[in-house]
Write a structure and sequence with these properties.
The complex is a heterodimer of chains A (270) and B (223). Chain A has 270 residues and is mainly alpha-helical. Helices cover 75% and strands 0% of the residues of chain A. Chain A is globular, with a radius of gyration of 20 Å. Classes of the chains: A mainly alpha (270), B alpha/beta (223).
């Protein structure tokens, strides 16, 4: 079975399903524009004001939060979409039917959130265009190859976290402690809305345990300061270490969770 | 291809802290079926659906062995070999058309979109499902037409093992006749297992019938 064919089938299915909810589809696109309006007013409020904690990034608060939100919006897709998609399949009663086919765990993982990533890419492009043409942000110092590497490592890491989160859905249906942590603490502690340096020492310790902290910091430095591989070395190595552990572990655990559901006969339950 | 099950056991654990006992759905079921059609009868809760889901690789057995063509087959191998039509057709994407659903599940089974569409069209004609119904959103189909789509999904795989759980449910007379013909044709190349609570339909579909009671198989059809 061609994995590409499976991915294409999932994308087509999700596109058609989303399109069938016309109002929701339109509102989803409008939400991207509404977020941009929020940024616009944040920009008007803070202007070019800079805080001391922003000094290492060499940029204004507006540019910082705009970049972080656009970046986090994309990599966060992986963290949230696997569990969400799986839950939807459970409640629709289609999970067992899909897993009654020869479809393997890896193609399933590659295909399950493909539509979400595609839509997130569209949102990212809108953000990028708005950043350049509407908000006149200056990305001339950016080191795009380094930013791209941070982006890839971060997206893979968050996708792995999302797959781990989906394991809870597979086993317990509702009640997902990992999603709770990801939803409530990644933004707060990871330096998305403000640099992690603002956090008190005891919270900074927790912040240092989260991959998002390294991802956002490295991305900001690459985009605003033009930091290269040498300057980002420690953040990149930590992200790579998260990937090396989390990607195979998440795929393996998801396979175990599916196997457990087959054993207990709960694939069709919700 | 010969399909055998020896001493098949399937136990569903009770929910944690429920105080309930585990459910022993298959209690050492033995089955041997050759290419052709075998009917399976049994009362509600006797283990028919659990047996089919286990033979299709949807569930993993807790004991016993399943042989496909004389070789042990695990759940993964069975999912490659078997097409399963569940007794409940509500396992489709309601917002998508019947044709789009069949295209999607066809892709998961390794069919190209052209193959899936061609087989769907051909089988729909045999079951009395009109081209306009194929294009209709799944949730706007009648129960009987949903069942036809479910049958098309399983039949279009042209699998070595075809497991049809209550396939006649909700079908009108014309569709029943069409399905009997399709089952007979499938039985020439595949090992087909069919369940039904109707003695007449089971006799019409299958040359040999078995009966399952309390998770064990024995000769005979529906009571």
């Amino acid at each position: 079975m061609s994995a590409l064919r499976v991915i294409a089938a999932f994308i087509r299915r999700d596109y058609l399903a989303e399109k069938s909810y016309r109002l929701s589809f339109a509102l989803g696109a409008l939400a991207t524009l509404a977020n941009l309006a929020v940024f616009y007013f944040i920009g008007r409020l803070f202007g070019s004001a800079a805080a001391p904690q922003l000094e290492p990034f060499g940029t204004t608060y507006f540019a910082y939060v705009f970049t972080a939100m656009a970046f986090f919006g994309y990599i966060g897709t992986g963290a949230g979409s696997y569990a969400g998609r799986l839950r939807l399949e459970q409640t629709q009663g289609t999970l067992e039917a899909a897993l009654s086919t020869p479809l393997g765990v890896l193609p399933l993982l590659a295909a399950m959130s493909a539509w979400n990533f595609l839509f997130a890419t569209f949102e990212l492009l809108v953000y990028a265009l708005a950043g350049v043409f509407i908000f006149k942000l200056d990305f001339s110092a950016a080191n795009w190859p380094a930013a791209g590497l941070v982006f890839l490592l971060s997206a893979a890491c968050f996708a792995a976290l999302g797959v781990l989160s989906a394991c809870f859905v597979m086993l317990f249906k509702r009640g997902n402690p990992l999603a709770w942590v990801l939803n409530n603490f990644e933004g707060l502690l990871g330096g998305v809305y403000f640099p992690a340096a603002v956090l008190p020492a005891w919270l900074a310790v927790i912040s240092n345990l989260l991959p998002v902290t390294y991802a956002v910091r490295a991305f900001q430095l690459a985009v605003h300061k033009g930091a290269g591989l040498a300057a980002l070395k420690s953040d990149l190595l930590i992200l790579a270490a998260f990937d090396i552990v989390l990607i195979p572990a998440s795929a393996w655990l998801f396979g175990l969770a599916v196997g457990r559901a087959r054993k207990t006969g709960t694939l069709g339950e919700y | 291809m010969r399909l055998e099950a020896k001493g098949l056991v399937k136990i569903f654990p009770a929910p944690v802290f429920s105080g309930l006992a585990p459910l022993r759905a298959l209690a050492g079921a033995d089955l041997a079926a050759e290419t052709g059609v075998t009917g399976l009868g049994g009362s509600n809760g006797s283990g028919k659906t659990t047996l089919f889901r286990t033979l299709a690789g949807v569930l993993e057995a807790d004991g016993g062995v399943i042989l496909a063509g004389g070789l042990p087959a695990d759940a993964k191998r069975l999912r490659e070999l078997a097409a399963y039509c569940p007794s409940n057709p509500r396992s489709f994407y309601f917002r998508l058309s019947a044709a789009e659903n069949l295209r999607f599940f066809g892709a998961l089974a390794g069919l190209t979109s052209a193959e899936a569409a061609a087989r769907a069209e051909q089988l729909a004609g045999r079951l009395g499902l009109s081209p306009s119904d194929l294009k209709r959103r799944f949730d706007r189909l009648s129960e009987g037409n949903m069942q036809k789509v479910s049958l098309i999904r399983a039949l279009s795989r042209r699998a070595q093992f075809l497991l049809l759980d209550e396939p006649f449910r909700g079908l009108d007379g014309v569709a029943c006749r069409g399905l009997l013909e399709l089952i007979a044709e499938a039985g020439k190349i595949s090992t087909v297992l069919v369940t039904s609570h109707s003695r007449e339909l089971l006799a019409a579909a299958a040359g040999r019938t078995l009966r399952i009671e309390n998770g064990r198989l024995q000769p005979g059809g529906p009571a």
